[in-house]
Amino acid sequence: MKLSRPQRVTVRKAILPDAAAIHGLIFEYSRSYNLLARSLPEICENIRDFTVAEDGKGIMGCGALHFYGIHLGEVRSIAVWPRYRRRGIGGMIIDGLLEEADQHRLPCVCLFTRIPAFFKELGFAEVERGRLPDKIYKDCHECRRRDECDEVAMVRGRLPSLARLELGDKKPARPSLSRI
Ligand SMILES: CC(C)(COP(=O)(O)OP(=O)(O)OC[C@H]1O[C@@H](n2cnc3c(N)ncnc32)[C@H](O)[C@@H]1OP(=O)(O)O)[C@@H](O)C(=O)NCCC(=O)NCCS
Questions:
Q1: Whose CA is closest to atom 34 on ligand 1?
Q2: 160 lines ligand 1 (CB under 6 A)
């Protein structure tokens, strides 16, 4: 059931003073494996990736757009505090990040998720994860759940066609790239 949208929600790019609040929000969900953990220094370093939703009182939710190159971006670290969920805030943050992706003329935006239904509504479609080697090289080999990953890869836009990742043994720790 859709709850009423809080009044005066602002979606804006994050600035450094938001870093601690973003860290707290991501930490909340990383404990239950819903999000990849991010350290505070890592968030500060990448603060320009982040977009936040706020009311007059504080940060309600956050999300980030990471650039792999001119071919691909990734929506990551999407989170809304439990008391604000199902009020359209998550959708507003994604819309803001996709608008930013369009401004940068990114042909493809990817993400890995356990809630594909949420992202399908927002225009993403499922793909084979081996089609996203950038993401696998960046995150999967360090992930505690790499051997039991239950996340779905999704993209919006045209998939990069430069390379494909062979995941023969299903372990992304030692991937090999082949041209296609
Ligand atoms: C995912 C998340 C950001 C969604 O934020 P939100 O503000 O609640 O989302 P919205 O209100 O914009 O939802 C819009 C629609 O998406 C769908 N949706 C929202 N959350 C969903 C979920 N967890 N699973 C499946 N569908 C979901 C619903 O259809 C919803 O519409 P409805 O409320 O009318 O049924 C939030 O649930 C969250 O922080 N989850 C924990 C962290 C997480 O899992 N992040 C995603 C990692 S990839």
A1: 2
A2: no
The model carries a pTM of 0.87
Domains and CATH numbers, the chain: 10-179 (3.40.630.30)
Give the CA angle between residues 165, 168, 171 to the nearest 5°. Answer: 85
90 lines ligand 1 (CB under 6 A): yes
Q: Is the distance from the beta carbon of residue 4 to the nearest atom of ligand 1 less than 6 Å?
A: no
pLDDT for the residue 94: 98
User: Does 179 have pLDDT greater than 50?
Assistant: no
Which amino acid belongs to residue 71? H
Token pair 């993209």 is found at: 155
Best mutation site among 110, 118, 143 for ligand 1 pocket (most ligand atoms within 8 Å of CB): 118
